[in-house]
From TrEMBL:
One of its GO terms (molecular function) is L-malate dehydrogenase (NAD+) activity. This is Malate dehydrogenase. NAD(+) binds at G11, A12, A13, G14, Q15, I16, G17, N107, V131, G132, N133. The keyword Oxidoreductase applies. Residues 160-326 form the Lactate/malate dehydrogenase C-terminal domain. The lineage of its organism: Bacteria, Pseudomonadati, Planctomycetota, Planctomycetia, Planctomycetales. The gene is mdh_1. It comes from the Bacteria. It is an enzyme of class 1 (oxidoreductase).
Length: 329
């Protein structure tokens, strides 16, 4: 067995947290030879429920779970102490009648404190994945409040969108999800995201050629992916949880595993100005990893129609950044 790593999960008693913790503790994420100490962070009124989650973790008797630390959101530095990964799931969900701008203003301050506490307490090699919405802008706020942490350590989760898109293409083409590659989501984790089917392949061929129905791709496919979260809420009466937890696992795996040659994955990271996208925005790109650092895949071409989609989602990210500029030191 290796030395344990420490993984913090905020919102640990929420529905994504509940679907996520057991998969991390069981060794599915970091491997059966990598012990993990889980740091569970919740708001004070939910600490009782968190005790119950801890009991259930105990009752699984996972050989890879080397310990559990609990902390409330008034003591974030205890929660993030020496953590190698911080998975920021906790945030206030959008309620009926709430505009996106309202949600940004409510959740923004959570992420100023999160950024400061990560900088003060986490391990030197910490990497952060923000899931709580609006995840790109929350990530931007946390990053801005932790200036000593290198900017390439910050990620916002786009993998649920990628997985949704891959699954739709596989179904439509009659192929398997394993046949679909390079299904990049560009931009914001919101209804403006651009699922880039033109550069995706199915069985090694351009997805558009395999599907053979460009108007289905431009209209039905994109809308289905963009609005999938709402469709799950409508059907299930609750927002995506198991699939979101799964996407969080996939994101961390993609970060820590060298990307197979010729492939890429989607995550929102701090733009370096590639593709003319403002430096410093937390924007989703096609990425590759060498097992520890990401690179943006270069040379991806967009036609005029697709470029307009990318421009629209980037414009939304800039608007969100303007909405929270007082939270960005
Ligand atoms: P839940 O409401 O079930 O759980 C959220 C938990 O966070 C609650 O237990 C709450 O007490 C806790 N919390 C709130 N403020 C906190 C704080 N300051 N510190 C620590 N914990 C805090 O929501 P759930 O369904 O688990 O979703 C969590 C977040 O993920 C939401 O913001 C949601 O919008 C977002 N999502 C993001 C996705 C993505 O692809 N990036 C997809 C799924 C999901 O919608």
């Amino acid at each position: 067995m290796k030395a344990p790593i420490r993984v913090a999960v905020t919102g640990a008693a929420g529905q994504i947290g509940y679907a996520l913790l057991f998969r991390i503790a069981s060794g599915q994420l970091f491997g059966k030879d990598q012990p993990v100490i889980l740091h569970l962070v919740e708001v004070p009124p939910v600490m009782g429920a968190l005790d119950g989650v801890e009991m259930e973790l105990d009752d699984c008797a996972f050989p890879t779970l080397a310990g559990v630390v609990k902390a409330d959101s008034d003591h974030l530095e205890d929660g993030f102490a020496d953590c190698n990964f911080v998975l920021c799931v906790g945030s206030v969900p959008r309620k009926a009648g709430m505009e996106r701008g309202d949600l940004i203003r409510i959740n923004g301050p959570i992420f100023t404190n999160t950024g400061k506490a990560i900088q003060a307490a986490a391990a030197k090699d910490v990497r952060i994945v923000v899931v709580g919405n609006p995840c790109n802008t929350n990530c931007l706020i946390a990053m801005a409040n932790a200036p000593d942490i290198p900017r390439d350590r910050w990620y916002a989760m786009m993998m649920l969108d990628e997985n949704r898109a891959v699954s739709q293409l596989a179904k439509k083409s009659g192929m398997t999800v394993a046949d679909v590659k390079n299904m990049t989501i560009w931009g914001n984790h919101s209804a403006t995201q651009y699922p880039d089917f033109y550069n995706a392949t199915i069985g090694g061929k351009p997805a558009a050629d395999v599907i053979g129905d460009e108007s289905w791709l431009q209209d039905t496919f994109i809308e289905t992916v963009q609005k999938r979260g709402a469709a799950v809420i409508q059907a299930r009466g609750a927002s995506s949880a198991a699939s979101a937890a799964n996407a969080c696992i996939d994101t961390v795996k993609n970060i820590i595993t060298p990307t197979p040659a010729g492939e890429s994955f989607s995550a929102a990271i701090c733009s370096d100005g590639s593709y003319g996208i403002d430096e410093g925005l937390i924007c989703s790109f096609p990425l590759t990893s060498d097992g520890s650092n990401w690179s943006i895949k270069q040379g991806v071409k967009q036609n005029e129609w697709a470029q307009a989609k990318v421009d629209a989602t980037v414009a939304e990210l800039k608007e969100e950044r303007d909405t929270v500029k007082d939270l960005l030191p």
